[in-house]
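Structure request: guanylate kinase, Fasciola hepatica.
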Amino acid sequence: MCLFTSDTEETTTATLPTIKATIPENLCFSPTFYKTVTFSNSENKMSTKPRVTTRPVVICGPSGCGKSTVIHALINKYPQAFYYCVSHTTRPRRPDEVDGKDYHFVSPEEFNEAVKSDHFIEYSIFSGYYYGTKKTELETAVKRNRICLMDLDIQGVEEIQKTPYNPICIFIRPRNFATLEKRLRSRSTETEDRILQRLAVAHQEMQYGISDGKFDAILVNDDLNKTVLDVMKVVQEATKE
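Returned structure:
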């Protein structure tokens, strides 16, 4: 689920239920992070299809951590294992986006009706736009005998953790904050103000991510192949019973 919108986008004025911000405002950033899951090389030789589970796998992390790349790599490596849940949003479609692939783009009225009809597993708001994952996405994954793979922000994680779906939640982070800032600046598509905004949010998200009990695992995304294998190890450990 995307966290940020273009500076040129207009704010939606739809009347929808208010979701309370879930990132504590008084968090202070620390450059050192703990509670990270690591696996030995022998554990990372997994090549078989993972055990199918009806528990959705939620990937979360700050902008610039590489979570989208990890998700795409998971789908490419295990195409018969995962089904990526495409979120619905009231945000306008960007020129390079494809409806139904990047997001399901809907009007505020359509989103509101879906909320009233209890069609969403979770939904949240950012910059005046709503984002949500419909229950039909999870149902499609189950029908196809796939693991439901979701990309959610902090609000989305907290919302889905309140449901009976029992998600496997994994937080992806860089080695340190300097690495994150370098990745964001290397994109060369953001203004300085936008970069600073993303960094400020990332400070809070990374502090939230390492809080006790928030996630099933916290993975350092230093090496893409290793991160993908580590995600698979977490999924198999969580579903081995």
